[in-house]
Amino acid sequence: MKQQTCALLLLFSGSLQSAELVLKNGHILKVDAEFGQASALAIDGGRIVAIGDESDITSHITESTEVIDLEGRTVIPGLIDNHMHLVRAAQNWQQQIRLEGVLDYRQALQRIADIAAKAKPGQWLIASGGFVERQFSGRPKAGFLRVDLDKAAPNNPVYLQHLFDWGYANSQAMRHIGVDATNPPQMPGLLLDGKGLPEGPVTKRAQFLIEQKIAELRGQEQLAHSRQALKDLARAGLTTVVDAGGFDTHDRLYEPFERLDSRGEMPIRLFYMKQVIPWGKEDLSPDLARLEGVTFNRGSAFFRPVAVGEQLMLSVQDSAGRAARSSEQVKAEFLANARELAKQGLPLHLHAVHDTSINQHLDAFEEINKEYPLAPLRWTFAHVDGVKPDTIERAKALGVLFAIHSRPVLIGYRFQARFGAAAQQMTPMKTLSDKGVLWGLGSDSPVVSIYNPFRTLWWAVNGQMIDGTQISEQNVDRRQALIAHTINNAKLAFMEDQIGSLEVGKRADLLILNQDYLSVDRRKIASIKPLATMVEGRWVYRSGELGPFVDRVEQSDTQH
């Protein structure tokens, strides 16, 4: 990797290297080892050929070079999400209602109404998580009423999934499962109001039947759904996403993205974890034969496997309140499976939340490390909300890394309810930083978190839930948060010589922002938006607010 980097530096360091594009008069955050800043950069062939002040760039400008005056705007590296369930979510992306950042109940209903007005009659409108009912002023902690959803979308079935819990449905959605909202039958999970009519929330069988109806729609127009999902992420400021697979993420769900990549139509980079759980089969024991012929961290720069994960064995799946199973048989099977990955030299990105589980895994890792050094493999624990300082030290000694996720922005109140004051020390970004452990920042969206990376940065810096509730003392400064969301995530994916910072020889993935990330009030970091998103030297998104560059970048699609 070092030889490749040196070759790139030699290739792009010559002062006579011309540039296709120059950005000047900007506030450019390089996010390199010194967290340096610059005012101009030059791009050619999708890579950065020079960066510094304008005198460093002048020699790269020719008659054919396009020069854009940034007028003082801030530029940062493209943001990388190290853990998202995009492939699963993309199945019905164009039918999705996104309620992230909507903090008023009436505004939420208006958003639903606006989307319904553009939808075909009878088309399902779905929110697959990404919100909590307590975020909506005007009706806090109470959720959506059926009658209000009926007014917002009288001609469309609406289903709003609350995290991985219950849902809310309107009358049209209920009609699809045989429920007449004016004369409802007795059905488990169909919650009724004081008049005996469906109130809106659905659980148990009613929820199951609605979700089955929605599942029947999947598989239609998958290429269009997948393309739109990637475009929306580019609009949000993400230039690379790592898909974590997970429950019921069948192999066929990756096919639309593979097709887009083969056509050269991927607007952003989608890396993914190769799953050893054979979803769809009766036996869900890990099948390491699924790794045969898989080449990690090579091939397409837009679509490639970067690790095994996020599950290695379902028997060790844990949560913040429940540790992994710990029978001698389970531990022996985990050791055998993990040792085989190490023997093959494969990276691992492992779901691990509870401190007891993480220590159990480290018992196995320490044994494996005696035979196969783990540090070069960059094995990574994902989520780690409950990890303790001493456990972090154990992991650090092995070279194990950490992937932190902004789930507390939605579910932090549950940590508080369960763990009390100790919840303030959970998801320990500050402790990881203080101990010098490499950690990256992601979302685990779109169901239990929010995919907007500036909301993730806001949470990391402020330690608050979406509704402003203070839920963490483990927040970090904005520089550390940006490092974690860029170059550190590139390291988790073995791509730090290619992406993650703005340096000579690297791929030109960057954002032009509407506000300065370093000086904006930290409480307003979530309001930052990209004016333009570039991937590999191509503009893949631009905002109408862009002003002087309006004719120099591609038009963005109208947000659905």
UniProtKB/TrEMBL annotation:
<keyword id="KW-0732">Signal</keyword>
<dbReference type="InterPro" id="IPR011059">
    <property type="entry name" value="Metal-dep_hydrolase_composite"/>
</dbReference>
<dbReference type="GO" id="GO:0016810">
    <property type="term" value="F:hydrolase activity, acting on carbon-nitrogen (but not peptide) bonds"/>
</dbReference>
<dbReference type="InterPro" id="IPR013108">
    <property type="entry name" value="Amidohydro_3"/>
</dbReference>
<dbReference type="InterPro" id="IPR033932">
    <property type="entry name" value="YtcJ-like"/>
</dbReference>
<feature type="domain" description="Amidohydrolase 3">
    <location>
        <begin position="66"/>
        <end position="541"/>
    </location>
</feature>
<feature type="signal peptide">
    <location>
        <begin position="1"/>
        <end position="18"/>
    </location>
</feature>
<dbReference type="Pfam" id="PF07969">
    <property type="entry name" value="Amidohydro_3"/>
</dbReference>
<dbReference type="InterPro" id="IPR032466">
    <property type="entry name" value="Metal_Hydrolase"/>
</dbReference>
<protein>
    <submittedName>
        <fullName>Amidohydrolase</fullName>
    </submittedName>
</protein>
